[in-house]
Write the structure tokens for this entry.
Amino acid sequence: AGASSCTSCPDGKISAAGSTSADDCAFAPCSGGEYMTDSGCQHSGENTFSGAGASSCTSCPDGKISAAGSTSADDCTFESCNAGEYMTGSGCQQCGENTFSSAGASSCTSSPDGKVSAAGSTSADDCTF
């Protein structure tokens, strides 16, 4: 004879309609930014990412960072550059001679009025005659 009522799956687990045993209960696939563990979905940590249904997280490429819960490699970015550097497609590069930059710059600024400065200068104050 058939059961007169259904038994719920344990917390956090689901099963298809018509399932016949607790062995049919499983965790729902994880969303992007999460990965599956024995106890269910966990958020991906900082500097990692995971797509929907992942069983593990993938580390960001060298030199790149991401927030916890990131969903793709596109979420991995270079850290902001220090003063005296500028951002390129491959990371931070030092400003050349006779230029300077502040922190987070995407380019270097030329020293004013024929003044000169050492490579890696951080402000117009570093430019002298």
Summary: The chain has a mean pLDDT of 92. The chain has no helices and twelve strands.
